[in-house]
Amino acid sequence: RWLRRIILTWKPHIVHTLRLNPEAWLTRQALQCISATRRPKWVVSSWGSDINVEIDLPGIRDHIEVALQHCDGFIADCRRDIGLALAAGLAASKVALEDPVPVSGGLNLDDFPAAESDHGNRNLIVIPKAYEGPYNKTVPILEALRLAEEALVGYEVHLLMCSWEVEMWLRRMPESLQRRCHCHNMLPHHELMSMLGRARVMIATSLSDGTPLVMLEAMAAGALPLMSPLDSIKEWIEDGRNGLLAPALYSDRVAAALRRALTDHELWRAARQINRQIVSQRANRRRIRQQVLDYYRELLKR
Prior knowledge:
By secondary structure, this protein is of the alpha/beta class. Helix content is 44%, strand content 12%.
């Protein structure tokens, strides 16, 4: 009722819903009670694992399929989600943009000055999602740190959004590793950017994801991304070329990738150049902003 009231009061030309579950279902319920003459155009976006994993949860598929059938346009978080949306009933004519749009709208590249070329200045390992959840597992990363501890000499490990479960299991690790690790709760964004600017590697292995914003930020900041080999991630990262890929639950493989990330200087130098070019071409907020605004204007003519 409140959402419907807001829409009727503000009279927007377009309502853009982020994400498909549960926000699109809420929006659908609000819009269907508004007469067609007063109803705004409706665009929906996918995000993370909503159409990739959550669609298989009891009762969720119907909600997502209804949203995709009744929306006026769909913007994907990654190319994978375009295919999944079409399979779930989205009309091909409703695909808004051929290229996926990160949920942040891309990066302001002015926030990322040219990174230092000297790898010796980068002495941090950043784990930005240090919590346990349905899509994210950090305990295997702790075990990987233990297995690769001989390669961590001279490095600090920073665990962000650190949950109590992760802190609990960190206390079970060797004392030498504990001294190297720094746990943080929530940090101001500028502090994260400062860390990524000093990071040699950013670890964000997960069970499911779309296009993680922190991966793009690491790429722009010159940190080597160590990610999981998910279809959405492989749209950005080629293993051994501009990042490293290891399955989230296989600590030995994460450890092997981490050792390489810390010792393969040629990979790090090459990845910096490649990733800067990728984000400039595909995650530039100025370019994406114009694309989305142009799409909105075209949608209103229909």
